[in-house]
Amino acid sequence: MFSPAERMVAFRYLRPRRSEGFISLIAAFAFLGIVIGVATLIVVMSVMNGFRAELLSRVLGFNSHVVVYGDGRPIRGHGR
Q1: What is the pLDDT of residue 24?
Q2: Is the entire prediction scored with pTM above 0.85?
Q3: What are phi and psi of 9, to 5 degrees?
Q4: What integer pLDDT is reported at residue 61 of this predicted model?
Q5: Measuring CA to CA, how many Å separate 66 from each of 36, 56, 63, 69, 78?
Q6: CA-CA distance, 16 to 42, in Å (whole number)?
Q7: Around Cβ 29, how many Cβ atoms within 10 Å?
Q8: C-alpha distances out from residue 34 to 11, 22, 37, 45, Å
Q9: Could you tell me where the DSSP H helices lie in the chain?
Q10: What Rg value do the Cα atoms of the chain yield, rounded?
Q11: Mind listing the pLDDT tens digit for each residue in 7-18?
């Protein structure tokens, strides 16, 4: 999934060195914040798309796109 170069760069900035432990902690918090933010965005977009589809189906169930009125005579061939 990730190339060795990408993995090397990621571990270089996420793995703590002996003298820079605090900076690595900040990088871990930043990484965790990005992960939580992206996950939240994905969940919210999924819920909103589902809500939109449900709302659209309910609205179109009440009011269709086309309404056909007869002129008093039966409509022939409507059951085909």
Answers
A1: 72
A2: no
A3: -65, -40
A4: 75
A5: 45, 15, 8, 10, 15
A6: 30
A7: 10
A8: 16, 19, 5, 16
A9: 4-14, 21-62
A10: 28
A11: 888 877 777 666
